[in-house]
Amino acid sequence: MIFRKALELELIKKGPTEFAYLKKVKNTIEQLEEEEVPKYLEKEELALFLKTAKNGGLTLDYLMFLILSYTQCCLQKV
What we know:
This protein has 78 residues and is an all-alpha fold. It has helices spanning 2-8, 29-34, 43-56, 61-69.
C-alpha cells in the first residue's frame, strides 16, 4: 500500500515487494492438537496489571504494557 503510493508519486522506480510472497504453513490436525494454548490475562487481571504499572511502575512501563496488551503477537516456526 505504501510502496504503491510511492510508485504512483514517482518517488521510487520499482516496488521492493513486487515479487514477495508469504509461505503458507499447513499443519496437520495432530500438530494443531499438540500446540500449547497461549496464556492470556483475564480482563480484570489486565486492568489491575495496567493500573499497577501506571501507579507504581517506571516512567514508560504503563505505555509500553498498554501497547503490548492491544498487540497480538504471532510467532511461527519457519
